[in-house]
Amino acid sequence: MKRVRKNREYAVPVPAKVFMALIYVFLYAPLIIMVVFSFNSGNGTTVFEGVSVKWYGELFSGRGSSGEYLAALKNSLILAVSSAVVSTVLGTLAAVGVYRLKSRKLSEAFMTVNNIPMMNPDIVTGVSMMMMFVFVGTLIGTSGDKVNFWTLLIAHITFNIPYVLLNVLPKLRATDRSIMEAAMDLGCTPVKAFFKAVMPQIIPGVISGLLMAFTLSFDDFVISYYVSGNDFVTLPIKIYTAVKKPVKPNLYALYSIIFIVILLMLIGYNLLQNKSLKAKGKK
Amino acid sequence: MPESVNKGPSSSAPAGEKIRKTAKPKKKKAGTFGTALANTPFVVWSAAFIIIPLLFVLYYSFFDPEKGFSIEYIKVFFTEPMYMKAFGLSALYSVIATLISLVIAYPFAYFLSKVSPASQRLQMVLIMLPMWMNMLLRTYSWNQILQDNGLINKLLGVFGISSVHFLGTPGAVILGMVYNYLPYMILPIYTAMSKIDRPLLEASEDLGCNGFQKLRRVIFPLSLSGVISGVIMVFVPSISTFYISQKMSLGKVTLIGDIIEQQIKLHYAEGGLNRGAAMSLVLMIIILIATFIMNRFSDEDEGVLM
Amino acid sequence: MKENMILELKNITVSFDGETVLDNLNLSIRDGEFVTFLGASGCGKTTTLRVIAGFITPDSGDVFFDGGRINDLPPYKRQVNTIFQRYALFPHLNVFDNVAFGLKVAGMKKEEIRPKVEEMLELVNMKAFAHRKIHTLSGGQQQRVAIARALVNSPRILLLDEPLAALDYKLRKDMQNELRRIQRATGITFIFVTHDQEEALSMSDTVVVMNEGKIQQIGSPTDIYNEPQNAFVADFIGESNIIDGVMLEDYKVRLDGRDFECLDKGFAPKEPVDVVIRPEDVDIVPLEKGKLEGEVTAITFKGDYYEMIVDVCGFKWMVQATDETKVGTKVGLIIEPDAIHIMKKSKYSGMFGDYSTFSDEMDQMDAEEEALEQMEESDNA
Fold it and tell me: What pLDDT shows up at residue B153?
C-alpha cells in the first residue's frame, strides 16, 4: 500500500522526462563539446580530427599560451582563496552584527545595503569601483597596474560579503538564543561563548558561505575586468583576451580538468549529504 | 567589553514571557557596544566600497576634469541614436530571453519538485554545475557549436539541410542569454515550489481542484515569489551583458553593455569615462525601477533573493 | 528570618522600551531554600531570574550575593547556574561533553572532570546515556542532562526557568519529585519559575506570587493558599469565591446581607473588605437549612467531585461537592467560620472571584494559550 502511494507521489510523465533531458542536453552541450575537443588531435575547436591527449601534455608543458593560462590560474586561486577567507570573516561578523541589531529599521537598512552588489548589474558594480580607484589613483599618483592585486581583492571581498552574510544569518536565526547564554552561564566570556557554543551551530552556513565566495571569486569576470590591470591577470580575464581569437584545445583541456574536479567535489558533497540525511532518517 | 556588563534600559530586551504574549520575535538582550563592534567593519566596508563608488558614478556622470559640471553625458544617451538603439535592443533581447527562460524553467522546476528527494538533490547539483564553469568559455563553446562548419550545421547536413548562419543573428544572442542565465530562473522557482506543503496540494484536491486548477489556484500563487526572483536574476545580467553579444553576434549586435565597455576603455579620452558613468547610471536607474515594479507583484519581502 | 541570606534584591526596577517590567522589587532568599516565582505570562518572574543570573542589569536597585553587591558581575563570574526553558543543551556535544562543559571552561583537568561528570550523571540517572547525542534524547532525558550540566559546577544557587513546561503531565509529576529530591540531596538553593500554581505549591518551601512586575505575596505554600493577601493571589492560587463584605467587628463579617462568624480581626469597624471562600469549603444543604439561598445553574463532573455554579442573588458562587445536585434546584449554603478568609481591599478588588463569566470561554482561552506555547516549542525544535 505504502509503495503504491510512493509511486504516485514521485510520478513524472514520460514527456516531462524527455523535456527535462533536453534541457540538460542544452545546459551540458557546450561542456561536452569542451571535453570532447580537449582530446582533439587537430589544432582547432570546431573540427574534430582524431583522439589525442597531446593538449594535456601541452598544457602541463607550460609553454606559450599554456604558461599564461597556468599563471592566470595561480593568480585566480590566490585571489579566490584570500578574498574568500577575508569575506568569510567579515561577512560572519556582519551577520552577527545584523542579528544583534535591535532596531528593525536599522537592520532593514543594513540588508538593503548588503543587497546592492547582488542586485546591481556586475557591470555597474565594476564600473563604480573602477571609478573610485581611478579617482584615488590620480589623487595619490599611483598607476593602477602596481596595485591591481589589491583593487581586485577589495572588489572581490565586496561582492562576496553579501553572500556570506546571507548564508550565515539564517543559521544564526535558527540557533536557540539560550545557547549563548547557557555557555556564559557555565563560565564562558561572551567571545568564548560565541566560539564554543554558537559557532558550532552556524558552521555549516559559514562553510557554504566560504565555498560560495571562493567560486564566485574564482569565476568572476565582469567586475574583475574593470578593476584589474596588466600585472595581475586572473583566469577569466585571460580567457576574455584569449577567446577574441580562436583558441587552441589546451584551454579546453584546462577547463576539462577543472570540470572533473568540480564534478567530483559536488558528487562527494551530494553523497555526504545523502548519507547524513539517511543517518538522520534512521533516528 | 562583554555584553552582560552593559547598562542602560536600551541594552536590555523584554523578558522571555513578555514575548510569548505578544508573539513577537524575541529581541536580543544585550550589549549595544558589542553589537556596534560587530557591525563596524561591515558598515565601514559597505560605505567605502559600495556606497562611495556609486557616488563616483554619479560624480563622473556630471563632472569632467576639464569642463566641470555638465549634463552633456546624460543628454547624449538620449540624443545619440546609436545609444538609444543599443539600449532598445538590450531591453528587447533581455525581455525575450527572460520570457523564454521562464517558459522553460517553470515546467522544469515543477517536474523537478515531483521527482524523488534523492533525485532532486542530484539534479540540483546538475543544474548548478555549469554555473561553476567559466561563462566566457561556455559562451565561446556555443560559438563553436553554432559556427558555419560547427556541430549543429553538421547535424543539419546529415538531414540534407544546407548550412545556416546562426552567429551574428539576434537569435544567437538571445540563446546565449538564455543558456547562461537559465539556472538562475530554475533555482528560485524550484525552491519556492519545493516549499509548498504537500498537504496543501491534497487540500486543494479535496476541495475539488482538478490538475489545472490546482496549478493555477494553488501552485502558481505560491511559487510567484520564486518566479519574480528568477525574472530579476535573468533580466538584470541579460540587459547589462557585453561579452555574450560580442561572442554570439560577432560584433553585429551592439548592446548597452558593449557601449559602456567601449566608453570605459577610452578612459579620459573623448570623455569616455564620463559617458561610461552616465550610461551606467541610467542603466542602474532603469534596473532599479524594473526590479521595484517586479517586487510589487510579490508582497513577500524575501522576494528578491532565492 | 535574617540569618543566612544568600541572595537579596533591593529596589530592583527594570524596564524595556519604556515599559516597566519589574517595579521596585524587594526580595531575600535564604541559603538552601526551594523558592518558586509564580505568576502568569508577563508578570516579571523570568526577568527577575535573569537579573539574578546576570543576563539583565537592573535600571536601578542592587543585587546582593552573600552580602556582596554583584550588579556589575557578568554571568560567567557568578556562582549561579541556570536551567533554561528549553534546556539550551549544546547540540554539537554529546551528553558527557555537555555536562563537562563548565568544568572544561574553568580549566579543570580531564582526569578530575570525568569522575565529577559521572557522579552527576548518576545523580540524575543518566549514566547509561553519557555518549548519546542530544537530539536522540527525549524531553525528560534532556531535562536531566540540563540539571546535571548546571549542578556539576557546584553553584550556590540554581535557577530554573519553567523547566517542566515542555514535558507531558506524567513526566512532569516525576520530575517535580526528582527536582525536590535533588534539591534536598545537594542542599543548593533552588529558584524555580513557573506559571503552574499546583507545581509551585507542591514543590516549594517558599512561594513568591508575582503580577505586573510586583511581588503580591511571599509565603509558605499553605500560607499562600489559606491566607491570600489580596484578590489577585486568592484567584490565582486555586479557585476562590471573592465576595464584597463589610467587617462589622472583630470575628464578624457581613456579606450578602447575612452576618457570618470568622477568625479574622484587626480591621476598622465597618471596613469594606474582600471575603475569600474556597469552593470546597462551601457546604450545600437543603434550602431551609442554609444561611444563603441560591439556585444551581451549572454542574460539571470532575472525577472525584462535582463542580457547581450556584447563583446567590446574582452573584455566582463556585461550589465543589461530592454529591450531585440537579441544575435548577434551589439549595442552601453553609460556610463555617474557619472557611472564611478576610482580605483588605486592594486594586484587584472586584476583578476576580465571581464565576458569572466562568464558562467554556475561559477553558477555550487556556487551550489556545497552551496550543500557542506548543507551537513555539515545535518552532524551536
Answer: 86
Number of domains in chain A: 1
Residue A140 included in any domain:
yes
Number of domains in chain B: 1
Which chain B residues touch C17 with a CB distance below 8 Å? 9, 14
Find which of A6, A128, A133, A152 to mutate to test the B interface (most B CBs within 10 Å of its CB): A128
Q: Of A53, A175, A32, which is closest to residue B138 (Cα–Cα)?
A: A32
Q: Residues B74-113: pLDDT tens digits? A: 888 888 888 889 999 999 999 999 999 999 999 999 999 8
CATH code: domain of residue B82: 1.10.3720.10
Distance from chain centroid for Cα C167:
17
Which of A262, A257, A218 has the alpha carbon at shortest distance from A237? A218
Mean pLDDT of A222-245: 89
Question: Which residues from A are below 8 Å from C when comparing CB atoms?
Answer: 176, 178-179, 181-189, 192-193, 196-197, 200-201, 283
* H or E element that contains B89: helix B81-112
How many CB atoms within 10 Å of residue A64? Answer: 11
Nearest partner of B234 among B125, B97, B109, judged by Cα: B97
User: Is B235 within 8 Å of B305 (Cβ atoms)?
Assistant: no
Under 8 Å between Cβ of C276 and C343: yes
Please state, in angstroms and rounded to a whole number, the distance separating the CA atoms of residues C340 and A37.
Answer: 99
Alpha carbon separation from B258 to A6, B263, C315 (Å, rounded): 52, 9, 86
A150 C-beta neighbours (distance < 10 Å), count:
12
Does A188 contact C76 at a Cβ distance shorter than 8 Å?
Answer: yes
CATH number for the domain that contains residue A263: 1.10.3720.10
- Domain membership flag for residue B96: yes
What's the pLDDT tens digit per position in C212-242? 899 999 999 999 998 898 888 988 888 888 8
* DSSP character at residue C268: P
Strand partners for C192: C36, C160
Does residue B155 form part of some domain? yes
CB-defined contacts A:B, below 8 A: 229
Residue A101 lies in a domain: yes
Beta-strand relationship, C340-344 and C271-277 = antiparallel
Give a yes or no: residue B275 inside a domain. yes
Least confident of A120-124, B92-96, B156-160, B225-229: B156-160
DSSP symbol at C240: -
**Is B29 a residue whose pLDDT tops 70?**
no
What's the sign of the alpha-carbon dihedral B94, B100, B102, B104? Answer: negative
Q: For the residues A186-198, what does the mean pLDDT come to?
A: 91
Q: Which tens digits make up the pLDDT trace of B227-257?
A: 999 999 999 999 999 889 988 988 888 898 9
Report the residue of chain A nearest C80, measured CA to CA.
A185
In a domain, A1, yes or no: no
Model ipTM value: 0.85
CA gap C245, A20 in Å, rounded: 82
Q: Of residues C150 and A64, which shows the higher confidence score? A: C150
Sequential DSSP letters for B90-101:
HHHHHHHHHHHH
**Is residue B43 in a domain?**
no
List the single range of B47-56, C145-154, C162-171, C372-381 with lowest mean pLDDT.
C372-381
Domain, as residue range, for B296: 71-301
The confidence score (pLDDT) of residue C204 equals: 93
Does residue A24 fall inside a structural domain?
Answer: no
Decide if A102 and B27 are in contact by the 8 Å CB cutoff. Answer: yes
What is the SS3 assignment for A87? Answer: helix
Most distant pair of Cα atoms in chain A: their distance: 78
Domain range enclosing A223: 66-282
Band of pLDDT at residue B213, cut at 50, 70 and 90: confident
Q: Which of C317, C321, C275, C279 is nearest to C295 (CA)?
A: C317
* Cell triple for C297: 445553574
Mean pLDDT of chain C: 87
